[in-house]
Specification:
This protein is mainly α. It has 2 helices and no strands. It has one domain. 70% of the residues lie in helices and 0% in strands. The longest helix has 28 residues.
Length: 71
C-alpha cells in the first residue's frame, strides 16, 4: 500500500487529522461567530479561511511537538 499523498487513503487520513484538530484550530484562530441574521462577504470569508489555515498549521505543529517531546 502506497503512502503517497495522492492516494485515497492518504487523503482520508489528512481529512481525519484536520477534523480532529478543528476544535483546537478554531480556538487558535480566535474568530468571532457570525450574527445568524447576517452573512459574511466573500472577502470576509477568505480572510477567515486564511486565519483558519494559519491556525491549523500552528495546531498541527503543536500536536507534533507534544507527541515528540511530551511537553
Amino acid at each position: 500500500m502506497s503512502t503517497d499523498a495522492t492516494t485515497p487513503e492518504a487523503r482520508q487520513m489528512r481529512m481525519k487529522e484536520f477534523m480532529q484538530l478543528l476544535p483546537l484550530t478554531i480556538e487558535l484562530a480566535g474568530l468571532p461567530t457570525c450574527d445568524p441574521n447576517r452573512s459574511f462577504t466573500t472577502d470576509q470569508m477568505e480572510a477567515r479561511a486564511t486565519s483558519l489555515r494559519s491556525a491549523y498549521k500552528v495546531a498541527r505543529a503543536l500536536i507534533r511537538e507534544i507527541g515528540e517531546t511530551g511537553q
